[in-house]
């Protein structure tokens, strides 16, 4: 039954293909549906009393997929400040695997945008962002994350090359001694990453390669994830966003990772989507639109594609 | 309550003319300067600067800098800057002098969240670095963490207090201070992120539970820079008027008088709560602040301070 494959596809991936479901399920006769239930063991379980039952877990997953479009809309219509404040709160609640979102917001937003998020946070949650981050995070990342969300970076182009060079050396040493002391607990590393301007940090990034022979993120591995993400967000944000998008669309992505697709597109569509698309193409050899076309469904897919092709 | 007495309305152009006349020719008519500058609020002073620049194509600040000197000139300069600009300049001076951070602590802990933000903005515009950037580069260790935490805070400003939290954090502070090793991390977290209302509840709880006020416990040996900064920040957060009264008292009592401190407190608080500080001063010292200032200062500098303290012309 060719329709069976189409039907399964309509439920597979990010979002659901509403049109296909209407066409296939809506027009189906009872026998078609019985056949569908019998031939999709991952959706329906054979019950001992001789009927095919929906797999509860699968229904829950479906609920999330149906909600993806609604969540995208709500997030899109939201004021950017409220958006960022809510994203940080959610990340704090979800725990360590989501701290990357806090890094993302603290490091890729402009100084005024981050400030706005902090104001919105006051209104929404009756606490300051730094207060909650400090209270909820107990591990080695606390100092760095509190410092990152409190930053109000200078945004002009002036950079002191000497300072950038010496700070690149400081970073290189801290990373080299990483097995003795965690670099993100080094107060100099925190100072440099959390207070210096972005142009300055890009100069540091450049000098790092001269000092250490490798790019800074090549010297960092999975055990330094927060540090890696911090450096990427500050120095190479478009590459960072491209990676988040690609991970969100990979087949075995965790449900939190999948949310990266909505988050990045909604939060960057008005800012630097064009550069992100270019970088995505460079890194992965396929256009972002095509990848979304393949991996997403229905209204959710159409909405995302609309967002990323707005200026074309 | 403010001590500065300013008219409800003024004509910026007229004021600018008076100032120009005061500077023209040989010498300067300081009395005329004081009669205007000592009796205009920040918004009015800003308008006068703009009017002066438009009418006479000159920066009033630069003009006065060249005409005046000494403590009087310093006081006039501080007075003419916008409040946030002034604090940015004071912060930069403090950072470069290094070693004494109480001015930075004052700015970070006494101002409201929005006011502190305005200072950070003014600092960036003036010095092409963020305040925290320069502060971090000139300090180290736990003092750095505390100071940077204080200046980058954007505290929630509501009155809500979580009593349970106040209890537990009072205990954390007590344990941290009494412990020989003195774990600074938690102390820094609490003091640099909690709202002021929450902190005051915490400090009160500390005193109720442990008998002594937290700042007294911080006086125990050995003294170090971190404890000093911490004490100052707690005093500023808890009762900044009392803190300022002590600064003034020390500034006047000191042999020779600390004009920098005197100018700073009077100029920065004249439009905010200098009257309340005056009351505290009188209660504590049995002599009015104006009298003590008049005794210890002289000339135009004295006249300007007295005007800011509320002396009518």
Automatic annotation (TrEMBL), chain A:
Lyase as UniProt keyword: no
Which InterPro entries does the record cross-reference, listed alphabetically? Answer: Annexin, Annexin_repeat, Annexin_sf, AnnexinD_plant
Signal sequence residues:
none
Q: Where does Ca(2+) bind?
A: 11, 13, 15, 65
Q: What are the record keywords, sorted?
A: Annexin, Calcium, Calcium/phospholipid-binding, Metal-binding, Repeat
One term of GO molecular function? calcium ion binding
Mind telling me what this protein is named?
Answer: Annexin
Q: What lineage does UniProt assign to this protein's organism?
A: Eukaryota, Viridiplantae, Streptophyta, Embryophyta, Tracheophyta
UniProtKB/TrEMBL annotation, chain B:
Q: Which SUPFAM superfamilies does the annotation name?
A: Annexin (SSF47874)
Pfam families from the UniProt entry: Annexin
> What free text does the record give on domains?
A pair of annexin repeats may form one binding site for calcium and phospholipid.
Q: Which GO terms describe its molecular function?
A: calcium ion binding; calcium-dependent phospholipid binding; phosphatidylserine binding
Q: So what family is this one in?
A: Belongs to the annexin family.
- GO annotations of cellular component type: cytoplasm; plasma membrane
Question: For binding Ca(2+) 1, which residues are annotated in this chain's numbering?
Answer: 25, 27, 67, 252, 254, 256, 294, 296
Please identify the protein, giving its name as recorded: Annexin
Keywords assigned: Annexin, Calcium, Calcium/phospholipid-binding, Metal-binding, Repeat
Does the entry feature the keyword Calcium, yes or no?
yes
Q: Does the keyword Repeat apply?
A: yes
Q: Where does Ca(2+) 2 bind?
A: 297
The Gene Ontology biological process terms listed for this entry are: response to cold; response to heat; response to salt stress; response to water deprivation
What InterPro entries does UniProt report for this protein, alphabetically?
A: Annexin, Annexin_repeat, Annexin_repeat_CS, Annexin_sf, AnnexinD_plant
